[in-house]
Predict the structure.
Amino acid sequence: MWTTLVRERAVSSLPPEKLLPDRQPSYVSSWIYVFGVATIAALIVVVISGMILGLGGPTWWHTTSLGRFFNGIHLWGVEIFFFAMVVHLWGKFFMGAWRGGRGRTWVTGATTFLIAIGAAFTGYLSQQNFDSQWIASEGKDGLNSVGIGAFFNVANFGQMYTFHVILLPVAVMALVVWHVLLVRRHGVVPPYPAKSSLGPGPASPPGEGSAP
Amino acid sequence: MELPTPAFGAVFDLSHEAHYVHWHFFQMSVANVVVIVLMIAVFAAAILVPFPKRGRVE
């Protein structure tokens, strides 16, 4: 049966002790490893505050104290999300985190970053104030210049709002889940081998994540 | 509609024009430059600041 096949494949690629580990390699004891989970924590705040804003709508988030508070939480959550994500990106780049068969982990992360930029842009367009009107008119020039202005119409609030509240968040969250599952599967990349008098060490450490 | 006034003013004066850093085609608000400098500082700190050691060795 297909359910057996799916279950066996899932369990073989991600057994419980890999899916929910209770130990980590010693080299993970560094503050640089905090920024991935900090990004996810910020994303959770952004999604929940976004849902609350969606329940209230533009008039609520502009004219009531509680609405403006959640508007602020949503904005500052996004600021912290991008801050943490970019520091995470810098850390992963300089430690060559794509090594040892971790190419897909890198690609899912980079793709999440690009889609999150789109989500932030559509969010800026969805404010329903003069700022968003200005951003729409300026953005229209840019998108028209690369030929996609007819398909992605920044003056179409319905389209931009829909991209912002459902299409792009679903894409971001699906990619984040895939990204984390890949990290669980392949382990955290070990550091670059230290130079030794015996000659160059292995260029690509094994995919299991154990220290060389 | 009468909007309720905030209980406290903004930490920074939000009423004046923003300041920009301008160099050839590159233009960015001072606030944005500050955020980027802060990100670089946090990155350096994350690498250099020692992580608290736990008693148990993995």
